[in-house]
Amino acid sequence: MKKSYKLENLDCANCAAKMETMINKLDGVTAGISFMTQRISIEADDMDTAVKEAQKIVSRIEKDCRIVK
Question: What is the mean pLDDT of each run of 10 residues along the chain (69 residues)?
Fold first, then answer.
């Protein structure tokens, strides 16, 4: 399954690249982040778990950034 979500409070293109790299290291998850559109695309079989784990990574890199469902 593939879904796209809005990223709130994403302030740094370099941080977005770091997030994408780390999220793509999760088992069974493929992600792409567009800093220009402030969106993240996630492809995974277990979407709820993938989004939860991606949010942990996003928050670690940019404290105030949130994935909005």
Answer: 98 97 98 98 97 98 96
For every residue of 28-48, DSSP letters joined together read: T-EEEEETTTTEEEEE-SSHH
Tokens of 27: 């088992």
Residue 53 structure tokens:
């784990």
Whole-prediction pTM value? 0.95
Q: Report yes or no: 22 and 58 within 8 Å, Cβ to Cβ.
A: no
Alpha carbon distance 14, 24 (integer Å)? 16
Closest among 48, 67, 55 to 22, alpha carbons compared: 55
Q: What is the pLDDT of residue 44?
A: 98
Q: Which CATH number fits domain 2-68: 3.40.50.300, 3.30.70.100, 3.40.50.1100, 3.40.50.12780?
A: 3.30.70.100
